[in-house]
Every structure is written in structure tokens, then in C-alpha cells.
Write a structure and sequence with these properties.
This protein has helices spanning 36-48, 63-67, 69-83, 88-91, 103-126, 169-172, 181-184, 201-212, 232-243, 332-346, 376-380, 398-402, 431-443, 448-452, 462-474; strands spanning 26-32, 52-56, 132-134, 137-141, 144-147, 150-159, 163-165, 178-179, 193-197, 216-221, 247-250, 255-259, 262-267, 270-274, 276-279, 283-285, 319-321, 360-363, 368-373, 387-393, 409-415, 421-428. It has 496 residues and is α/β, with parallel strands linked by helices. The strands form 5 sheets. Strands 1, 2, 3, 4, 5, 6 and 17 form a 7-stranded mixed sheet that branches. The longest helix has 24 residues, at 103-126. The protein starts with 25 loop residues before the first strand and ends in a 22-residue tail after the last helix.
């Protein structure tokens, strides 16, 4: 569920709960939130019953479509297209100095296409009539929800209220010059100087994209590891890539102060003045005021109830929590899976557990960064586990050199005893595609030898993956000299 105040709320087009005619009925399911998880839950519920209600607070349209995945990628694509001009001369292409970027035009395109994506998600609830209600829901119990003064009962309740960007009060007090992703894409233009606070996946993506559009960007992070990386070698490559585009300040908290001519950012000994600040320090689940205390389950210090990640069930209640509000895996494909599970279980006589997909997280910077399966630090924390690391540096990789994309590193991790692939971390060209190949291999529990037995065409960037796998293979017991498996007996004397 989106809480963006920068986009016009479509609540006026939704049915008032007074007109539903269902206030004294028991529904089969009530869904709170019409974001990615809520819509995924709705899809499963609607297959099984027409007696449901979906409640949404604020603007309709998923976080992904409205303020997250899609508008950010639209900005990144424009930035990378403009940035390619720096390679033209090496390719023998002249005239790149005449190119210019029109940032207002870039932002207009972002909003235009963003609105198309949002319209697709909004149309789903628009078609529901009285079964879609605008308003802020509050739990009265594990079977009752109140919205706009009306009380509704249900056999199963799915909570998918989404999340909101974290913006500390001291930063919020500086007004419209301090942005989050809820407001960034609504800007008609951008100042020439920008600070980005937070170098997680979103902060990294936006900092690099803005820099490539010609904005002078200063990035701030308190931790050495950036973008979810934990492998020191991969993290070093990511940091080096970022520092080609932005001024990176790591280690100290950043504070903001209004000064003449802009906002001064202080971080340790570093001082700089910028026109705008993008705060990207994470998102907070929209759980406050939801009434979780009425469920009769213990809440942790963050107000979060116990949730089974394989069934999405809250304790042993008929309530299910899914999506960003769960905050376990705040990614669209995971939110959709959680909504799917919650929708199935809310309609089932007995909740079922489902196996979750192999973890996959991608940062769409250049080169792409990703963590697949178990990352370096997760493997290190496992007592008794011995693993090997196979790696490749893309500086000398043939296809990467041909496209002037020869930077980055890929590390794959394999069980030292069995050779089974456990995970990978990378900052590499075409990393989003390499990450998917590796996720497939890890999910199928393939060994290093089995993946090496698959074809690698030439010349492709995937040959870099083969190099990393061969590096891992050499460290495994019973290392073989060939990627090819030996033939089994054919049954003909002349051929055996």
C-alpha cells in the first residue's frame, strides 16, 4: 500500500464503506493494503470467493510501480544512455561533446511511463466496486477490522499495509529540499548539487544515476559494506565503481544544517553544501496504529508480531502478514510470493507451509551488484561449514573489453566437501543476468562440476562465470582436468 503524499490519491474514486452494504456480514477474507502483496493475495482469494473486501489507505498503485522499482529504473536507463557518450571516442565515434541532457524532460518521461505502470495496478481494484474500500484500517480483533467508522468481520485477515520511507524529524524539518523516493520523481527539475544519505541498494542506484545525469553527487554511508555486499573483494569493486561517478564519504553519520545557499552536510571532518538531499536510509513497515496489540500475540521491540515466513501466519491466529510490512525480504518478487501464500492460507481450512525461493537481491548500478543464495558473511557465520571461493575479475574478460565494460568481480561459494553451489556475490557487467543463472543453479542444488558441464558460448560475458567456477573447482577435492563428464558404457565393444 502506497502512502505517497506527492501523488494524487485516488481514494475519491473508490466506494465509501457506507455504500458496500456489507457492514453486518462476515466476509471470507479481508485484505488490508492494495500493494504488490495485497494484490497477489487478492488474486488467490478472488479465485475462491466473491465474499471479500480489500481496504487501502492513501494513493492506490504499488510501491514498486509508483515510487520504487519502475520509476527508479526509468531514471537509471536515461542516465546510463547519456553516460555512454564517454565511450564513444574509443569506439571511433566523434561528436559526443555536443550531447546534452534535459533533466526536466528526463523527469517528465519518468512520470509519464510511471503513470502507465501505476494505471495497470489501479485498474485491478477499480473493477471491484463495493468490494474495494478507501480508508485507514484498524484491527479490533483477529477477526474484525474497522475502517471509516464501520466494522467488518472475516474468517481470515491479510495484512499487507506496505512501508514508508524513513525520514528523521531533524531532516524532515528542512522542508521540500529534503527528498525521499516518494518525492524525488515528482520534481520538475533538480539542483546542480545533491547529497544522498544511505548507500543501500536504492541509495546507490539513485546516487549513480543522478551523477550520470550531470548532478554533482555526494554519497554518505556509515558502514564500509555497500549495497548489501559482505564479500570484501566484491565490495571493493563496487566502491571503486561508485567513486568514478560520485564523491563517497564512509564511516560517520551525516547531519544536515540549513545555510545560506543550500543545505550543509556534515560527516566527520567532511563539509559540503548542496541544493537538495535524497534520504535513502530504508523504509519502515506501516504497522503503527494498525491494532496488532489486539491479536493476543507478543510484539517485539519494533511492534512486530511473530510471523511464520513459510505460511505468513501471525502466531496461531487467522491473520497473515505479507509484503514490505513483514520486512523480512522487502523485494517485489518476495512480496508477491508472500501475498500468494497469505491468500491461499486465508482461504484454506488449515494453513500450509511453502518453501521459499532462493534469496536473490540485485542492485541496478553499473556494474550491477547482486547477492545470490547465501552471501559471504552468512556462510562465515555457520559453525563447521567449510566453503571455497572461486572468483573472476572482469578487467581482462574478452566480451567485457569489447564493450568497454571490463570492470567488476564475481565470487561464487561452494561447499568444500560436496562442491555444491551455496551462493555468490558480484559486482559485474550484466550482473542481473549472471545472478539469475546462479540463482537457478543454487535452487537446483547443482555442483560446481554440474554447472561447468553446461555450454558456455563464445564470446559472452557468461564466460566470466565459467572462469570463477573453474577457480572454485581447482580448490575442491578430486578436481578434474576437464569440464566434460566421462562417457558411460555404450554397450558396443567397438565404442566402449
Amino acid at each position: 500500500m502506497s502512502n505517497s503524499s506527492s501523488n494524487k490519491s485516488q481514494s475519491q474514486t473508490k466506494n465509501n464503506p457506507d455504500s458496500t452494504g456489507h457492514s453486518d456480514q462476515i466476509f471470507d477474507a479481508i485484505i488490508v493494503g492494495a500493494g504488490s502483496a495485497g494484490l497477489a493475495a487478492l488474486r488467490e482469494v478472488a479465485k475462491r470467493t466473491k465474499r471479500f473486501l480489500i481496504i487501502n489507505d492513501g494513493a492506490y498503485g504499488t510501491t514498486c510501480a509508483r515510487v520504487g522499482c519502475m520509476p527508479s529504473k526509468l531514471l537509471i536507463e536515461a542516465a546510463n544512455a547519456y553516460h555512454r557518450r564517454h565511450t564513444f571516442e574509443t569506439f571511433g565515434i566523434t561528436g559526443s561533446n555536443a550531447l546534452a541532457v534535459d533533466i526536466p524532460a528526463v523527469l517528465r518521461r519518468v512520470r509519464r511511463l510511471r503513470d502507465d505502470f501505476v494505471a495497470g495496478t489501479v485498474s485491478i481494484t477499480d473493477e471491484l466496486g463495493a468490494r474495494s474500500v478507501s480508508g485507514r484500517a484498524q484491527l479490533l480483533s483477529s477477526t474484525q477490522v474497522q475502517v471509516n467508522g464501520q466494522t467488518y468481520s472475516a474468517k481470515g485477515i491479510i495484512l499487507a499495509p506496505g512501508s514508508s520511507p524513513i525520514l528523521p524529524p531533524a531532516m524532515q524539518a528542512l522542508g521540500a529540499r529534503v527528498l525521499t523516493t516518494d518525492t524525488l520523481f515528482e520534481q520538475t527539475t533538480l539542483g546542480p548539487r545533491m547529497a544522498v544519505i544511505g548507500m543501500g541498494p536504492l541509495g546507490i542506484e539513485m546516487a549513480q544515476a543522478l551523477a550520470r545525469l550531470g548532478v554533482a553527487v555526494h554519497g554518505y554511508a556509515t558502514k564500509e559494506m555497500l549495497g548489501g555486499m559482505s564479500d570484501p573483494d566484491v565490495n571493493a569493486e563496487l566502491r571503486q565503481a561508485l567513486e568514478r561517478d560520485i564523491t563517497l564519504n564512509i564511516g560517520a553519520e551525516a547531519s544536515l544544517h540549513a545555510v545560506e545557499g543550500g543545505i550543509e552536510v556534515r560527516s566527520g571532518a567532511h563539509r559540503t553544501v548542496v541544493d537538495q538531499v535524497l534520504v535513502a536510509i530504508g523504509r519502515s513497515p506501516n504497522l503503527q496504529g494498525l491494532g496488532l496489540e489486539t491479536l493476543g500475540v507478543p510484539l517485539d521491540k519494533h511492534g512486530m508480531p511473530p510471523v511464520n515466513p513459510k505460511s505468513m501466519q501471525v502466531g496461531d491466529s487467522p491473520v497473515y502478514l505479507a509484503g514490505d510490512a513483514h520486512n523480512d525480504r522487502p523485494l517485489l518478487h518476495e512480496a508477491a510470493d508472500e501475498g500468494h501464500i497469505a491468500g491461499l492460507n486465508a482461504m484454506a481450512p488449515t494453513p500450509q507451509c511453502f518453501e521459499r525461493r532462493i534469496p536473490l537481491a540485485i542492485v541496478f548500478c553499473d556494474p550491477n551488484a547482486a547477492v545470490v543464495g547465501q552471501g559471504f558473511s552468512a556462510l562465515q557465520r555457520q559453525d563447521g561449514l567449510q566453503f571455497v571461493t572461486g572468483s573472476v575479475n572482469f578487467v581482462g574478460q574478452g566480451r567485457a573489453r569489447a564493450g568497454q565494460r571490463n570492470q567488476g568481480r564475481l565470487s561464487v561459494y561452494a561447499d568444500a566437501a560436496s562442491g555444491c553451489l551455496l551462493g555468490a556475490e558480484l559486482c559485474a557487467p550484466a550482473g542481473e543476468h549472471l545472478a539469475h543463472l546462479l540463482a537457478l543453479a543454487v535452487s537446483q542444488k547443482l555442483s560446481v562440476a554440474q554447472v561447468l558441464g553446461m555450454p558456455f558460448y563464445h564470446p559472452v560475458l557468461e564466460e566470466g562465470l565459467r572462469t570463477a567456477l573453474r577457480d572454485a573447482a581447482r580448490q575442491l577435492p578430486d578436481a578434474v582436468s576437464s569440464d566434460l563428464a566421462h562417457c558411460g558404457p555404450i554397450g558396443a565393444l567397438a565404442l566402449d
